[in-house]
Amino acid sequence: MEKVYNPHAIEGKWYRFWIEQGFFTADNESKKPPFSMVIPPPNVTGSLHMGHALNNTLQDIMARYKKMSGFNSLWIPGTDHAGIATQNVVERELAKEGSDRETLGREKFIERVWKWKEQSGGIIIEQLKRLGCSCDWSRQRFTLDEGLSRAVREVFVRFYNEGLIYRDNYIINWCPRCKTALSDLEAEHEDTQGHLWHIKYLLADGSGYLTVATTRPETMLGDTAIAVNPEDERYRQYIGQYVILPIVDKKIPVIGDLYVDTSFGTGVLKVTPAHDVNDFEIGKRRNLEVVKVIDDDGRMNENAVHYCGMDRFDCREKIVKELDSKGLLENIEPYALGVGKCYRCKTIVEPSLSLQWFLKMKPLADPAIAAVREHRVRIIPEMWEKVYFEWMENIRDWCISRQIWWGHRLPVWYCDQCNKTYVSVEDLTTCDICKNDLRRETDVLDTWFSSGLWPFTTLGWPMNTKDLQTFYPTSLLITGFDILFFWVARMIMMGLKFMGDVPFREVYIHALVRDAEGKKMSKSKGNVIDPLIIIDQYGTDAFRFSLAMLAAQGRDILLSEERIEGVRNFVNKIWNASRLSLSFIGDTEFKESHEKSSFLPDQWIRSRSQKMAREVSESIEGYRFNEAANVVYNFVWREFCDWYLELIKPNLYGKATAYDTEPTRSILYRTLSDILKVLHPLMPFVTEEIFQRLPGKAHESIMTSTFPQFDRNELDEEAEDRMDLLMGVVDVVRNIRGETGIAPNVKVDVVIRSSNHQSLLKKYEYYIKELAKIGHLSFIDGASPGHSAVGVYREIEIFVPLKDLIDVSKELSRINKELAKIDEDCEKLIQKLNNPSFMKKAPQEVIEKNQANYEELQKKREKLIVSQNILEDLSRV
User: Fold this and answer.
1) Residue 876: predicted pLDDT
2) Among 118, 526, 671, 701, which residue's Cβ finds the most Cβ atoms within 10 Å?
3) In the beta sheet, which residues pair with residue 437?
4) Distance CA 610, CA 717 (A)
């Protein structure tokens, strides 16, 4: 093996090997139990970001682990056509050429998008391969491929024929930039500091005025009533009267409606049915006129009188000035409100009356709620169930039509002569009544409509394929909480509706990846960590393992390059430990049998490795990825490298000859093999490279090996207990050396007093002396030696005589300086943690990090105090 591990020399090689050998391909004829997942399809426009990296790392851990655990593992990959996002990308390209989609026309524009998709749309797939994703690429799908398009039509037609899809005028979220309707979920609400404008509406009879408070004065041009609560004594007498709509000079009625919140503003509500969903409902109840004053491009229309053609926000400014000049602006007050923005272009959306297609959600939501309540679908962590129920129980009909060209065009045709609507899976051309040409609906479906069918359409539905029979319902979905409603809830509804069963048995919801300070990563903040740059710098395995180590359930991941660098050091540790181990093992292929050894460290390491493998397995099964990573990290670094390899070196180098080395070499072979297998789902590349260097493993793959199974026969609690004593004694001596400032190259004398464990300690005296750097080790029964630092471990007293070993005054001075620095740092942390503003505004992860730093400093302080006391005692001798 090379002295230095070079990830770039091996990663591409092994990924090609896995592909060529077909290790990622599932077999729908296999007798093994199935395990299946569908990838949350990334946008075809996308490139790998930190969210993708976390999500797909966790999925790959599960896919590889299940394959090694004897399952017929299928992970279906694919991409989403991402209607609005992809259309925007291509439109920007056209703009650079001085063209636009209208100039091209629909057919040519769609051709252009497909061409872009073929040339640039596969970037993220190649990036997922760099991450090591073991997807079954032979089953790769695209939400606009022929099979999925057919399935989408089938679903639409079935919904329509059942009366669940309908077309109607309703208030929807409209993006003036993208010029399309958005669903409620696609309008992201952002807390913004706005204003409440208090406007006087003069009573038509000249007797006074009513004051309306509004956050959107530009929409007043479309008011068709003002409303008060009929139980509000302040305004009850005005119901049935009329006011003059300012600027428009039009009489509109004062109506009573219980919807009006008497505590909001002045308790008088302007009613604009064309531009507010609640006003629209009031208008329907009261049969009010509907006047639209803002067009689809965000500009005021002809109903906006002399503001026609003006941008809506410029209009707001001008209207406020005009009202003020006419004495109709009573007051302006600051007001915090949630502003809806387009999830793609971040333009402020406009609630607007529009003729759109809708899907009735209540009949679909009820069975989906029951499925989660009955745990036919289990959401992990459980806290997300409450959020799911809250949204599902208050669900509104879904606006599924979009006014763009890229996407699944609605399978709807109109006969303008007969005024008839046709909905069909097959394309239609002529009316079956009047034989005139039919006009095709221009709208496309919301992207989430097709991705909501993903778990069964990717397996071949509506055909009853072998894949569908074998792998549906899928076993697991791993995704972020931000698409719990966009995607997860809709998949559950669609799966129950069209397959009669849930689409997956379990959903694991992971948190966000943030920077080291707990801030959300964004280009504007300059704190984005690019996964591809990290992979280039540190290697894929170090990056993946870092994400896994931090992926605690329900907690955001605070990632920094320093953390990844630390894990890169761990990968190097594994490499170097494996080089040493392979040099000891030699060319002998040891069978994975229970080789017995009389050497205590051999017995101990096999018992500990069993427990480690069991804990890792249980943690992965429970989606506690951080626990799995930390268990194997601690075992490899501390128990295998720091203890076991150091303990067997004297035997295998021939310095100690009391024990037969053949059993040790066999146990080393099996333990290293187990470590590599346990690590493989988390670190696929380095483990494959080392595994194939084991004697007898060349040309095999760790991917097809068996994940270590817990073997009770290899447990040895007595060996663990006895080994704990040896390690405890060594640790005490090491601690005393550290606490008193003894140089690492100086050997110390040690005296041990123990009534119960002297025979064990004498038996392994050579190894204790080697690991603790002891010159002379003696055992006593009587009085303790003077001038010594003392440590105790499980009734064993350990004395290290210190006379002439250290400069006591110099060490005391050093410790006092360290204590002063710790006290200074602790004071700063206390001030921060006692600051109400910091505790209120800082993310929980940052608060916990500061608390952990404080606790760590306190522990360090306690240790230094111990050292200080020891040295002060010695200075008085």
Assistant:
1) 66
2) 671
3) 430
4) 12
Listed residue (89, 58, 91) closest to 75, CA to CA: 58
Burial class of residue 650, CB neighbours in 10 A (0-12, 13-18, 19+): middle
> 3-state DSSP call for residue 197?
strand
Q: Read off the DSSP letter of residue 702.
A: G
Both tokens assigned to 149: 């398009």
CA distance 31 to 475: 17
Show the tokens assigned to 790.
């003392």
The H helix count followed by the E strand count for the chain is 29, 29
Contact assessment for residue 499 and residue 458, using Cβ atoms and an 8 Å cutoff: no
Alpha-carbon gap, residue 55 to 133, rounded angstroms = 11
Encoded tokens for 373: 């309540």
Q: What does the chain come to in residues?
A: 877
Kindly state the tokens that stand for 421.
């609507």
Supply the DSSP symbol for 339: E
In a 3-state reduction of DSSP, which class is residue 167?
A: strand
- Pair 298, 311: CB distance under 8 Å: yes
Residues of the chain with pLDDT under 50: none
Which 3 state secondary structure label does DSSP give 204?
coil
Report the C-alpha gap between 336 and 320 in whole angstroms.
Answer: 19
Question: Is-contact 37 62, C-beta < 8 A?
Answer: yes
Angle at 149 (CA atoms; ends 148, 154), nearest 5 degrees: 95
Contact 509, 480 (CB under 8 A): yes
Using DSSP's 3-state secondary structure scheme, residue 434 falls into coil
Question: 189 pairs with which residues across the strands?
Answer: 340
Dihedral (CA of 498, 499, 500, 504) sign: negative
pLDDT of residue 809: 78
Please answer whether residues 243 and 251 qualify as being in contact, where contact means their C-beta atoms are separated by less than 8 angstroms.
Answer: yes
- In angstroms, the CA 459 to CA 469 distance is 9
Q: Measure the CA–CA gap between 372 and 478, rounded to whole angstroms.
A: 16
Q: Are 767 and 647 in contact (CB under 8 A)?
A: yes
